[in-house]
Amino acid sequence: MTSRLALWLIFVGGYIALAYVSRASTGEPDDDVLYRYDTAVGALVQYAIVLAVVLFITRGPSQRDLLALRPPHSWGRAVGWSLVVIVGIYIVTAALEPFLHAGDEQGLTPPDWDPDRAGAYAANFVVIAGVTPIVEELMFRGAGYSLLVRFGQVMAIAVVGVTFGLVHGLVYGLAILTVFGIGLAWLRARTASVYPCIAVHSLFNSIALVVAVTT
């Protein structure tokens, strides 16, 4: 388990460093980044690599347990706790966004809707609302939480939340992403499952993408 944790920390640390170096060298993405098919393809390649590394780190008979690929103790309670996380992150976002402008810093949402490029937007929607939540949750609330929980739930939730925030390579958006990561890690702790985390993450991303082009 110690070697698995060391590999996970090295991988996440390298991912964080790469994210900040990339942001510093390239700046904010173009406004039309989600209207390009190459964005979706590039993200799919990136997430395929990340998933392969996560599966390598957790390989073995205990892989499903390490990734928390099991039903929650109670689906009813999982739904209730998921709603708590969703409401909580929107309250935090509403409170901090006027000061941090995290959405502008991330630069992924286009300024308006372009029906002529709806196909590319749909492709990126599938990646961001479908693939991203699965891979990131397996990486953080699956493997990361499972490997860190031996140091206590509070430690696991905090480290997973902070690293999740850092891996996005943002400065002003770090606080909101960290709170989101902590909320999802808390949900993982309450349900003992990664499935509710994937669902909440997917819903959050989906709403953001819809709101971006409808308001």
What does this structure look like?
The protein has 215 residues and is mainly alpha-helical. The longest helix is centred in the middle third of the chain and has 31 residues, at 118-148. 76% of the residues lie in helices and 0% in strands. The chain has helices at residues 2-26, 37-57, 63-66, 75-100, 102-106, 118-148, 153-166, 174-191, 195-214. The mean pLDDT is 94. Helix 1 runs antiparallel to helix 6 and helix 7 (153-166) runs antiparallel to helix 8 (174-191). It has one domain.
Provide a short characterization of the protein structure.
The protein is mainly alpha-helical.
SSE-based structural type: mainly alpha
Q: Whole-Å distance between the termini?
A: 48 Å
What is the total domain count?
1
Low-confidence stretches: none
What would the average pLDDT be, to the nearest integer? 94
Largest sheet: none
Order of helices and strands: HHHHHHHHH
The tally of strands reads: 0
The helix content is: over 70%
Q: What's the Cα radius of gyration? A: 17 Å
Q: How many helices in DSSP terms?
A: 9
Overall shape:
globular
Estimate what percentage of residues fall within beta strands: under 5%
Q: Multimeric state of these chains?
A: single chain
What key attributes describe this structure?
9 helices; about 220 residues; about 75% helix; mainly alpha
